[in-house]
Amino acid sequence: MKSELLLQQNVDLHSLNTFGIHSHAHTYARIESVSQLLALHQLLNNDVALRKLPRLILGGGSNLVLSDSLPHLVLHMEIGGRELQAETEDHFIVRAGSGESWHGFVLWTLAQNYPGLENLSLIPGTVGAAPIQNIGAYGMEMQEYFHSLRAFDLESGVIRIFDKQACEFAYRDSVFKRTEPGRFVILDVNFALPKKWQARLTYGDIASQLRESNIAVPTAMDISQAVIAIRQSKLPDPAEIGNVGSFFKNPIVSREQRDRLMALYPACVSYLQSNGDYKLAAGWLIEQCGWKGRRYETVGVYERQALVLVNLGGATGADVRVLAEEIQVDVLNRFGVKLEVEPVFV
């Protein structure tokens, strides 16, 4: 564990964002310990120019679309560690450092017989980024098993504990995205994983994959492997084709709007929500507008999944924005549904 804080200038973030955009950070620091953050806090208090820089907390770079040049202080989180923090009658309380690979952490929990996160297998990024985005997939959101997190406040220099209520989770959202971005640096996250585990098979793709594998009574590891196979069949590997996974949120609409759409488009894919609203499949909407597989010079829409935008080589953040906005306009004009972008443009 390093204690010395090293600030670097004009650092290329190409290898640190999964879209593979060449973006240069004004100032960059790798964070591996709380002592480095304490040193940074003191430096911010004494260096007016550094304090004025906007801040970007960088994890795996899997939910970002970067500009060519970032006039930012970029903090690249690499705090590691995984452990069983405590046990209750009903739960294993498991802690992971913010810089840990999310997928690696999920596989570790399953190997330790702490089930619960299997439906979130193979989601790119780090543990620290998971609560910021409230990641979710295949009928589950991270918040369901979230317990608490520790975050360093760069303004006060103290460590604050956030429980579930303080995080203000919403669909692909949290307080960390809405309030003073760059102020709180997540150090580690605790999850409460159930001792009385039940399989989550509400998504048909998982059930189909398990049937193909002749698995009638799946374990948590079986579900994880099924999710991995499904994601690999639909989503490109960022190491081969730059992307940030699903680019648009699945829109939530009222029952009335959903019924109007179903009358016009009976094949429209929708899922009933607990409050009576419906979640629409953004990928289906985009595909119906003819975008699936469409390519431009530097960017395009993945041929296997219309939700995914890809870097065809040399893409800039501006290129990605133009493509995303054209898709949004088409979907709005045809279906009257506004798509929201999932990654953050910086």
Short précis:
The protein has about 350 residues and is α+β, with helices and mostly antiparallel strands.
What labels describe this entry?
346 residues, alpha+beta, Uridine Diphospho-n-acetylenolpyruvylglucosamine Reductase, domain 2, Uridine Diphospho-n-acetylenolpyruvylglucosamine Reductase, domain 3, Uridine Diphospho-n-acetylenolpyruvylglucosamine Reductase, domain 1, 3 domains, five-stranded antiparallel β-sheet, four-stranded mixed β-sheet, globular
Number of strands: 19
Instruction: Determine the mean pLDDT.
Output: 94
Q: Kindly provide the radius of gyration, computed on alpha-carbon positions and rounded to a whole number of angstroms.
A: 21 Å
Number of DSSP helical runs: 11
Strand order of the largest sheet: 6-7-12-10-11
Q: Indicate the proportion of strand residues.
A: 25-35%
pLDDT under 50 segments (min length 5)?
none
SSE string: EEHHEEEEEHHEEEEHHEHHEEHEEHEEHE
- State the end-to-end CA separation: 30 Å
The largest sheet is: 5 strands, antiparallel
Structural class: alpha+beta
- Which assembly state applies to the chains in this document? single chain
Helical amount: 25-40%
Under the CATH scheme, the architecture of the largest domain is 2-Layer Sandwich
| CATH top level label of the largest domain | Alpha Beta
User: At the third CATH level, what is the topology name of the largest domain?
Assistant: Uridine Diphospho-n-acetylenolpyruvylglucosamine Reductase, domain 3
Number of domains: 3
Query: How would you describe the shape?
Result: globular
